[in-house]
Each structure stands twice: as structure tokens, then as C-alpha cells.
Write a structure and sequence with these properties.
The chain is built from nine helices and five strands, in the order ββααααααααββαβ. The protein has 340 residues and is mainly α. The radius of gyration is 28 Å and the shape is elongated.
């Protein structure tokens, strides 16, 4: 059972009210930290980065293998669509390297030049991945247009197996990374997941085109070039969508309503908090930064108000493992500044 105390503090006593019960354990934590609050479970954030890094590394290994197989299949088997898809996979490999490096940089602690840490590296990586996707689409599209009308041999039958295997592997990898990205909150991993999904759809188009060419004969070779252009359109759409998403994060887009609502309700439950006036939550890497304005009794002493602010910060950091830091501003209640 926790110890509590009730003592009339200036302001509360004048209005005939008593200071609500506060857990002594909260003040012991403040004294031990000398006024600074440290997240109760720092391992939680590290585990998120580890999971995201492993997912990116797995994607790198698979993309390298698929890229090499499709490159050989396109060159030896005579399929330009498969060759285009190989370029896409090798570009994905480079993107995965960028994500792995960025996730490692994002875990570096704050320093004098980066007092807020290096977590933005993750969003920068997501933007870089998106740009690489767009550039690869432009390159493949240009090459496909150049091949229109050029006589080509029928692709080898075994290229169908490469295209079919690519569809299954890419879709499985996409499903895995979507789950990891949502669980960790990594925009870079989610970007990779959607990239794999577009790759799976592109591979399906390649598979269908190869089957049509093999069944229809030389008169249907143009279908192979058409499939390459479909691949380009899908890659381009994915790249633009991902770039818009990662750019929004770099511009400090407000976090989703569900998370903001949970943080607000938790803060309002803290002893001494009358209301939450403002709440801003922005994503940084796999974590979030919170700026919150709370309202407390206007007659509280500076020390009592300071204690309430720390209780809010303690509670939020304890309850939400993905919060990196919380900045609390105390407003008097009733608040005459609201109308200004």
C-alpha cells in the first residue's frame, strides 16, 4: 500500500480545499533523479530499433538474392520485363542498406550538436528510399520505351519459375514488414513494406506477360514491354506516396488521434491536473516528443506546481514506452490567457 499525505498548501487552503493524496513514491523518484525524469524502461525503445533493424537486414539479403536471380533470368532468358524487375530489386537492396545505417544512427544518444538526438535519421532514410524508388522507375521506364518495336526472341520457359517465386517471396516479405513497421512505428520499414508490395504486383505482371508471350508466340512479344511499363507505373506511384508520408514526418505532423487521446486522458488523471489546455505530439524516429500544457490551481506555490509538472512527465513516460521526452508547461486555472 502506498503512503499518501494531505496537507493544506497555499491557495488550496484559502479555497477550503485540500491537496489531493499524492504517492510518496513519485517524489522519491524525483529526488533520486534530481528533478530529471528518465524513462522507466529504456530497453523498450532499443528493442523496437533492434526489431526494425533486423527486418531491414532480412529485406537486404532477400533483395540481393532475388535481384541476382532476376538479372540472370532477364539477360539469359531474354525477358526485358524480368530485367526491369531485377533493376528494381537491386535498387531495393541499396534502399535497405540506407535504412539499416539510418536505424543505427538514430539510436545514437544526444550530443552538444544534436541535443534532441539523431532519431530524425530514420525519417530521412524513408525519404531517401522513396527517392531511390522514383529514380529507378524513371530509369526502367526509359529503357522500356526504347525497346518498343524492337524484335526480340521469346523468353525462356524457366523464367516463369523465377517470376512466380518472386511474387510469393515479395508478398510474404511485405506482410512481415508491414507488421514490424506498425508494431515499431518505423516509417522507413513501412516504406520498405510497401515497396515489397509494389514489387510483388510488378512480379505478378511480369509472370502474366511471360505466360502470354510463351503461349501466344512471337506476335505477343510486345506484351513483355507493356508489362515493363506497368511495373514502372506501380513503382512510381509507390515512390511518390512514400515520399509524401516521410516528408510529413520531417515537418512535425501531429501524431494520430488515438495516441494523442490516450496521452491526454492519462495526463488528466494525474493528481493536481485540472485540465489539459494544449497537447502536441510529434514523431521522431520510432519514438515521440510531447509538448503539453496543463492547468493547475492558480494559487499553487511554484514548488507545488513544479511537482505536479514532474508527476505528469513521470506518468506519461512510464505509461508510454515510445515517448522519448515530455515537455510540460503549467498554466493557472482559471486561465485568462485562453481568449488571447
Amino acid at each position: 500500500m502506498h503512503e499518501t499525505y494531505s496537507t493544506p498548501i497555499a491557495g488550496w487552503a484559502d479555497s477550503g480545499r485540500q491537496w489531493p493524496p499524492i504517492r510518496w513514491s513519485s517524489f522519491r523518484r524525483l529526488r533520486k533523479g534530481k528533478g530529471r525524469t528518465v524513462k522507466s524502461d529504456p530497453e523498450s525503445a532499443r528493442s523496437l530499433y533492434r526489431e526494425a533493424s533486423w527486418a531491414a537486414l532480412l529485406g537486404l539479403i532477400i533483395n540481393l538474392g532475388l535481384g541476382a536471380a532476376k538479372l540472370v533470368g532477364g539477360l539469359v532468358g531474354g525477358s526485358f520485363a524480368l530485367l526491369s524487375d531485377a533493376v528494381n530489386s537491386l535498387g531495393d537492396s541499396l534502399a535497405s542498406i540506407v535504412v539499416v545505417v539510418a536505424l543505427r544512427v538514430a539510436q545514437k544518444p544526444p550530443d552538444a550538436e544534436h541535443p534532441y538526438g539523431h532519431t530524425r535519421a530514420e525519417a530521412v532514410a524513408a525519404s531517401s528510399v522513396a527517392l531511390l524508388i522514383i529514380l529507378s522507375a524513371i530509369y526502367v521506364g526509359w529503357q522500356a520505351i526504347r525497346q518498343i518495336g524492337v524484335a526480340r526472341d521469346l523468353p525462356a520457359t524457366w523464367t516463369l519459375w523465377i517470376a512466380g517465386s518472386n511474387v510469393v517471396i515479395k508478398e510474404a516479405l511485405s506482410q512481415y514488414k508491414v507488421r514490424v513497421g506498425r508494431r515499431t512505428g518505423s516509417s522507413a520499414i513501412i516504406a520498405n513494406a510497401w515497396d515489397h508490395r509494389s514489387d510483388a504486383l510488378c512480379a505478378l505482371a511480369v509472370l502474366i506477360s511471360l505466360a502470354i508471350v510463351r503461349l501466344g508466340g512471337p506476335d505477343y512479344v510486345w506484351v513483355d514491354q507493356a508489362a515493363a511499363l506497368i511495373v514502372v507505373a506501380a513503382i512510381l506511384w509507390t515512390g511518390i506516396s512514400l515520399y509524401r508520408s516521410s516528408a510529413s514526418e520531417l515537418m512535425d505532423l501531429q501524431a494520430d488521434d488515438q495516441l494523442v487521446s490516450k496521452i491526454r486522458k492519462t495526463a488528466e488523471q494525474v493528481t493536481g491536473v485540472i485540465a489539459v489546455e494544449k497537447l502536441r505530439v510529434r514523431k521522431t524516429g520510432l519514438e515521440y516528443l510531447v509538448d503539453i500544457h496543463i492547468e493547475g490551481d492558480a494559487k499553487l506555490t511554484v514548488d507545488a506546481g513544479h511537482q505536479v509538472s514532474h508527476l505528469v512527465k513521470d506518468r506519461l513516460l512510464d505509461d508510454f514506452a515510445t515517448l522519448r521526452d515530455v515537455l510540460v508547461h503549467l498554466e493557472p486555472h482559471p486561465n485568462d490567457h485562453r481568449a488571447r
